[in-house]
Design a protein that fits this description.
The chain has 587 residues and is α/β, with parallel strands linked by helices. Helices cover 32% and strands 25% of the residues. It has 18 helices and 23 strands. The strands form 5 sheets. Strands 5-6-7-3-8-9 form a 6-stranded mixed sheet, sandwiched between helices. A 6-stranded mixed sheet has the order 19-20-21-16-22-23, sandwiched between helices.
């Protein structure tokens, strides 16, 4: 009996333009018996969530056939044999962690006599032991995701479907979620099918389904997919360490999305102590070095690197023609050398200290990151810096002005993109931009020019008169960014602006940040994609309200090195630094 098979599956919806849109378009595949952990990977709008909802019987296909454990998904006999964790798991936020588990155990038919032992096992496995009496609504994003997974695992289905369980989750929690799933699949025989837009999560899957625009790009094992990219993935390092930043930022513009087929690289992104590049065709190190230097990059060395699943996706999905060029608006940043000065800031909520005694400065044009696990205090720090939350103690100066004494003056010089888009969904794109422009004090001809500029720069022309609630997620993200830049701010605050975004959207996002940095715009950013920290000039890592380290990407990586792992990735360094600090605090 096949575990799961799909043949010529089709599901259509009405698109933003009123025309039929194939969210799932003629999909056919069959899962092999030996695959236990299956990842469906692809960008926002690829059709991953629609496919999962079809597989669990929440949607009816327009055409094609689905067999889950040999049965149609709508068969009552599948009840208990399959499980589903949606993107927004329906926790009861007013109930405690334990009360939620008791509720879901009753719904899933877990015998009362067995429930306490099962709770204890899963709470320990997910790291939620000790939080049984905390209200679910008071948990961090990562802890909510782990509680949702715990509830999904109270019964052990033969097949568990999880829709983007790691969106907005920090690296520690992502690793824990992955380990939980791997442990459960190996010890119980359960199979797990997980969707994600984070290609790194596909590295250790038994099988990967790559999707884009409703179609399957590939069904493969990670090993087989990576083998196909032999002699096409390289690492560039500046010959002179002083040129490292020039190399990184220069390489970002030498890609097909910016230059078309004449570009040296199909993709480029900072990694470790260099720039990871993917080529459209095979090449030799010496030829690539000569081509890169001829394109204007500083003297460099080239070495082969192992391909990643991210490279596999880029190769399959990225267009070879120019598609994402961004001309930065004509921003004129202020004259201050130090644009942010935080001195001993703290924030308390009752008896709980979210941020304790934090000090740092940010220079004009710098890209500065705030990183940390869920609940570390970084969002609280972020909100204090942009005037949305008053510190309980300490001082903040922005653009040379005390935030406490001149909040309105400071706000006119900052742009802000919230983690959850603060857009008015019943207004059109143009109306949203007009509203935000007026909020920033733009009027008349100046306002009309800025709105037109934003629509063009952020490729919103097809959606200009479309209601915001009908936009695809990527277009909403573009609109939020455009609204934040309307008044040409000196400082841009971006709170997990790439959370859930696909590879191409994240590459475009960072090229924009670099372009704005060259104009003197300062960016403060939070992110859960640790490799994105390489784009920052400096960043700090917080945990439990305290700063653990502040430095350049290279300094942080060196601090996270161990005898067993002398050259960690940024994510490995992050996890080592946080865990080392927690062990020291516990001893």
């Amino acid at each position: 009996m096949s575990v799961l098979s799909v043949e010529k599956l089709v599901k259509r919806f009405v698109g933003p333009d009123g025309r039929p849109l194939a969210a799932v378009d003629e999909l056919s595949f069959e899962l092999p018996e030996e695959a236990r952990l299956i990842t469906i990977a692809g960008p926002d709008g690829a059709g991953k969530s629609t496919l999962l909802r079809l597989l669990v019987g929440l949607l009816t296909p327009d055409a094609g056939d689905i067999r889950v454990l040999g049965l149609s998904p709508d068969k009552a006999s599948l009840s208990g044999r399959t499980g589903f964790m949606p993107q927004k798991f329906g926790l009861y936020e007013e109930l405690t962690v334990l009360e939620n588990l008791e509720t879901f155990a009753a719904l899933r038919g877990v015998p009362k006599a067995e429930a306490p032992a099962r709770f204890s096992e899963l709470l320990s496995l997910t790291g939620l032991a000790g939080f049984e009496e905390r209200r679910a609504g008071a948990l961090s994003g990562g802890m909510k995701q782990k509680l949702g997974l715990t509830a999904s695992l109270l019964a052990t289905p033969e097949l568990l479907f999880l829709d983007e369980p790691t969106v907005g989750v920090d690296p520690l929690s992502r690793r824990e979620l992955k380990n939980i799933l791997r442990t459960r699949t190996e010890t119980t025989g359960m199979r797990a099918i997980v969707t994600t837009s984070n290609l790194a999560e596909a590295e250790e899957a038994d099988l990967v389904l790559l999707m884009d625009k409703g179609r399957l790009l590939d069904v493969t094992t990670p090993e087989a997919a990576r083998r196909r990219l032999s002699r096409r993935t390289f690492l560039l390092r500046a010959a002179d360490p002083a040129d490292a930043k020039t190399l990184t930022r220069g390489a970002l513009d030498l890609v097909n999305a910016e230059m078309g087929e004449a570009a040296p690289f199909l993709d480029a992104s900072p990694k470790a102590d260099g720039v990871a590049v993917l080529l459209a065709d095979e090449a030799k190190e010496a030829d690539l070095a000569a081509k890169a230097t001829a394109a204007g990059l500083p003297a460099l060395s080239v070495s082969a690197r192992a391909p990643l699943m991210e490279d596999v996706y880029v190769d399959a999905a990225f267009a070879r023609k120019a598609s994402a060029h961004f001309s930065a608006p004509k921003v004129e940043a202020g004259s201050e050398d130090l644009v942010i000065e935080a001195e001993g800031i703290c924030r308390r909520f009752g008896s709980f200290t979210a941020v304790a005694d934090t000090s740092f400065t940010v220079k004009k044009g710098e890209v500065f990151g705030l990183l940390g696990p869920n609940g570390a205090g970084k969002t609280t720090t972020f909100r204090m810096l942009c005037g949305l939350l008053a510190p309980s103690g300490g001082k903040i100066r922005v653009c040379g002005v005390s935030l406490e004494e001149a909040k309105s003056e400071v706000r006119s010089r900052i742009g802000y993109v919230a983690q959850k888009f603060s857009l008015y969904e019943k207004l059109t794109v143009r109306q949203n931009l007009d509203y935000f422009g007026r909020s920033y004090g733009l009027l008349g001809q100046r306002l009309r020019e800025r709105v037109t500029e934003a629509i063009e720069l952020f490729r919103l022309t097809p959606y200009a008169n479309e209601r915001t609630d009908r936009l695809p997620l990527g277009a909403k993200r573009e609109l939020a960014f455009a609204a934040a830049l309307l008044h040409h701010p000196d400082i841009l605050f971006l709170d997990e602006a790439t959370s859930g975004a696909d590879v191409e959207a994240r590459r475009t996002f960072w090229r924009r940040i670099v372009a704005l940095s060259r104009l003197g715009v300062t960016t403060i950013v939070t992110t859960h994609y640790m490799e994105e920290a390489h784009y920052c000039d400096r960043f700090l890592i917080q945990d439990r309200g305290r700063v653990l380290i502040l430095g350049t990407p290279d300094e942080v990586r060196r601090a996270g090195a161990t005898p067993d792992n002398p050259e960690p990735t940024m994510e490995e360094a992050f996890i080592e630094i946080v865990e080392r600090s927690r062990e020291e605090a516990a001893s």
